[in-house]
Amino acid sequence: MSDLPLIQADRAVPPPAATTTNGGRGRRLRLLSRTDRVVITLMVLVPLLLVTGLVWLPAVATVLLSGTNWDGIGPIGEIEWVGVKNYDDVVNIYPPFVPAVQNNLLWLAALFVVATPIGMFLAVLLDKELRGGRFYQTALYLPVVLSLALIGFIWQLIYSRDQGLLNGVFGGETDWYGDPNVNIWAVLVAAGWRHVGYIMLLYLAGLKGVDPSLREAAAVDGSSETSTFFRVVFPVMRPINIIVLVVTVIESLRAFDLVWVINKGRNGLELISALVTQNVVGEASRIGFGSALATIMLAVSLVFITIYLWTVMREDKR
Questions:
Q1: What is the pLDDT of residues 200-224, one digit of tens each?
Q2: What DSSP state is assigned to residue 270?
Q3: Higher pLDDT residue, 282 or 267?
Q4: Buried-most residue among 41, 169, 181, 182 (CB within 10 A)?
Q5: Sequence ranges of the domains in the chain
Q6: Claim: this prediction has a pTM higher than 0.90
Q7: Which fold would CATH assign to domain 102-271?
Q8: What is the DSSP string of 115-161?
Q9: How many helices (H) and strands (E) does the chain have?
Q10: N- to C-terminal Cα distance for the chain?
Q11: CB 272 within 8 A of CB 104
């Protein structure tokens, strides 16, 4: 009789749990039903197929076609390989290429030197929890949700030579969109108006993630708000700064909608993206030549995207 409690106690003790991670992982997988597994597989497979089919395969095909003289009409089997001839023609005998590169660089400079600091300044102001900050934040971000094509139509109401607000106020007759001497500057103002809201939101998110103790320590040391921002807060937001740099470069390269709506990228508004469209889907239909222009854009974009990814992965390892 004395052994009975001991036997019952032994029965009450649960068996030890498995300690191997593989066993625990296997049990978690067995908890998933067949339907769950199908759903998870589709959630991974469908985006992968879409990215592969809509991004990677066209990118690889563009690079391959840039070495051919295909006009998009003949059969693929008759495509003639011409090597780097298209790139040589782009640089040496294609007059719009140099103005397009200059305009893209000007676009980048305007967004990076003017629009980006303005967006950062607005983010700093909104981070101070001003009265009506939500309203200002929404109003400043609103242009970002609009397409550049729609922004072009909106600014047409301001730039119109006959009925535009700008000429009406100042009494001039400048054709802001038609004059090749001024239209690039008018377009940059419209593009910068949109870019400011985007940069403002990125920096505002970065400022919300800064440790408040850093600012408090700087204030105790007698640092001013301006000095605290540039010496303490701004360096801490290094990942955000890299993102802003990459976004600004990509925005300057893929700028297309606005100039295409105005005059299809001609008469002073030449951009590389517009030249690609003119050659690939325009009257000339020079697929190989247009692919060479697109490959140049892709190569420049990959440089900055690689810098961004390298920075992000290095931050994750710390």
A1: 999 998 998 888 888 888 888 888 8
A2: -
A3: 267
A4: 182
A5: 65-94+286-317, 102-271
A6: no
A7: MetI-like fold (1.10.3720)
A8: IHHHHHHHHHHHTT--TTHHHHHHHHHGGGGS-HHHHHHHHHHHH-T
A9: 18, 0
A10: 63
A11: yes
